[in-house]
Amino acid sequence: MPWTRDQMAERAAKELRDGFYVNLGIGIPTLVSNYIPDGMSVQLQSENGMLGFGPFPYEGDEDPDLINAGKQTVTELKTTSYFSSADSFAMIRGGHIDMAFLGAMQVAQNGDLANWMIPGKMVKGMGGAMDLVAGVKKVCVIMEHVAKSKDGKEEAKLLQKCSLPLTGANVVDMVITDLGVFNIDKKGSGGMTLIELAPGVTLDEIKSKTEASFKVDAKVKQAA
Amino acid sequence: MPWTRDQMAERAAKELRDGFYVNLGIGIPTLVSNYIPDGMSVQLQSENGMLGFGPFPYEGDEDPDLINAGKQTVTELKTTSYFSSADSFAMIRGGHIDMAFLGAMQVAQNGDLANWMIPGKMVKGMGGAMDLVAGVKKVCVIMEHVAKSKDGKEEAKLLQKCSLPLTGANVVDMVITDLGVFNIDKKGSGGMTLIELAPGVTLDEIKSKTEASFKVDAKVKQAA
Amino acid sequence: MKKVYKDAKSALEGVVKDGMMVMAGGFGLCGMPETLIKALRDSGVKNLTCVSNNAGIDGAGLGLLLETRQIKKMIASYVGENKLFAQQYLAGELEIEFNPQGTMSERIRAGGAGIAAFYTKTGAGTEIAKGKEERVFNGERFIMETGLVADLSLVHAWKGDTEGNLVYRKTARNFNPMMATAGRVTIAEVEHLVQPGELDGDMIHTPGVYVQRIIHTTAEKRIEVRTTRKRQAA
Amino acid sequence: MKKVYKDAKSALEGVVKDGMMVMAGGFGLCGMPETLIKALRDSGVKNLTCVSNNAGIDGAGLGLLLETRQIKKMIASYVGENKLFAQQYLAGELEIEFNPQGTMSERIRAGGAGIAAFYTKTGAGTEIAKGKEERVFNGERFIMETGLVADLSLVHAWKGDTEGNLVYRKTARNFNPMMATAGRVTIAEVEHLVQPGELDGDMIHTPGVYVQRIIHTTAEKRIEVRTTRKRQAA
Description:
The complex is a heterotetramer, with two copies of chain A (224 residues) and two copies of chain C (234 residues). Chain A is of the alpha/beta class and 224 residues long. Chain A has six helices and 15 strands. In chain A, the strands form three sheets. Chain A has a ten-stranded mixed beta sheet with strand order 4-3-2-1-5-8-12-13-14-15, sandwiched between helices. A three-stranded mixed beta sheet of chain A has the order 7-6-11, with no helix packed on it. The longest helix of chain A has 9 residues. Chain C is 20% helix and 27% strand. In chain C, strands 1, 2, 3, 4, 8, 9, 10 and 11 form an eight-stranded mixed beta sheet that branches. A three-stranded antiparallel beta sheet of chain C has the order 5-7-6. In chain C, a hairpin with a 4-residue loop joins strand 8 and strand 9. The termini of chain C are far apart. At the A-C interface, helix 3 and helix 4 of A face helix 4, helix 5 and helix 6 of C.
């Protein structure tokens, strides 16, 4: 059975390490914060200028001056610091954030990522996504394995080459989908490797739904 | 009679305007702060990270964390703000300081300035001088008109072309010496113009002590 | 040198000109100089190029200037929350230049700091890089981006003194500090206008040198996306 | 994730290597990480490249590392107060690279901020520009300077919490905040080590993400140039 959104977030949380500073995109990545292991210190960065934020406020405690990058009201922690947008992206671009989890429309086997525009449709802008993927030490995409159109047709999202305009070239280190987990050697020539299958998902199934070429890690082969 | 050091500082202070933010170099420029007209708001910037500083502290009130760019203990004012060296030079380089007064070894008629090294001698470094002359809106040099060596020989400091390594090219707007005041059209082709003589100093005297070519302002001609 | 003006209208007098470039702080509605933007609308100025992370929402922030078609061009990173924006853009009435958010904030900082241009990895190999110089440093691809300076910057702060020293509050800081440095003229609206000496010199985010005019604002601060959790029963 | 170390010696363990580049904060002796520098000397590390605005004075600051000849090269803007420096330099035992102070502070900021290089007017047309790219923007000459990243940064702060959040005091801030961002490892010595929550989030100068290790220091702060005025008789 493929992973649910929450299971994908839970799997993603296994990539966290004690002391990590992490940026979470909107959608499934936001759920990762629910699965930070007890006793592990993980500080969440919000690119609008905040390091260390807590859950949504209790009703009535909302502060218009205290929002996350999705413009949602949040709360502060004892560890929280605030800074300007320039300082926030200096932190991101300078490689000081350990990990970013974000969604994607397409990922290519060389680590190219497309998640900000579809030509011909209204363009909303890339926000901070291009900076995050260019600057954060490890970039982990969490997304559905395939895109389903209204007529039920499925389209691969893990591709040989992205067809949509890129958010970043050679930027993705890891992809977690509802079917499995892939590593990408984004700066080298190692390509993409399947390192884990969701329970009950077969190698054949994932191959049939993936346009990208990928190797299969020995551990996955053994289990299959 | 040529101006004294204090009279040069007093003359320099006439260039100040209400609301100016000003950087003062060491030596005679430091004295300019004694001649800020009453009721005029002038904030002094210290490039080590302070805007708005006051006089030396009373004996016993010295604070090791509160120094100016000459590393002297100073005091703060109600208007004082502190910032990092990067922010301080962003302020300077970005053109936000209205005026800098500094000393010089040589000034050329095109506004070139040399005040940081003499080849063959021990080099101490340029500190913040290159940034100040490149970034501050108006740069005013205050210096003795000629250099006197130990044997009493005089050497011109206002030159056709600086012989010493430059601190900045086309950077000086005004030169105040013990003999008079010059404007320099540093970005244009207007060259150097004598706009004022110290009382009792003759045009012939100043010409004999100046290697640079300069025009003489009509007001000076009339007075002479 | 008096920096304090009695209201937004008088603070804008003499500095507003058709076709000018205006920077406005804020991330969404958070930390946006709402009072000054309303006065800018009321000034009737036209053909503005606006630099702001977002384009406000319908009926608030820069959305106000879209209603009156006073904006010719936007430089922004994300304009998703604004229907009027989409309409005017699709009708060809509005130009948009998208900048990655970090590139935009750094371009503004650079403009204020006398840095003509800089090299960033952000956007290398993407459409954003088109027409820009690419260059390799230490084996990685960088593109050149230029500094931005505006004719006028409008910022919102929590506290400000009569010298123009500003302090921001929480995430309402965002783009305001850099924009304050990058405006040829910068006007600040502050929720608390105080006397010199009331702010701690170590805790001033924007030194007064960057602020030419300052006003007191009492406008209500709005919340764009209200998200809460329920209180546990006691 | 424990960032607090019991003393400077233990904080330096595992991060010190011969030939490394070390940044040290401070403007003269003001805001200089004296305790960490002493421990660095005692570690016996050799052939250091040190980045610091000055080279300390005889017997204090980086002057300590000159006595023991642990410094191979200095990157600095002004080294006037140090006889030992002059001796070793004139004897050819020490390399020096002078950077204009603003260029140096911006290079460090750029290194920490992922900016590979930038264009500044500072030094255009002077010896500093030799071998560097020159380029004209808006009719003015600029030169390209590159970002600086160090293996280790040593900084001094007034207060710090166990998360590594730092607050500096008055002009002791100087180079410390940028250096904290530009070290692959940054170690802070603080005069007051406090618990999270004791520092106001709006007033933190260096967010904890930049600080890997932190120690409490009780070293006396010295004054380099004591200048005073006399009290008026009452």
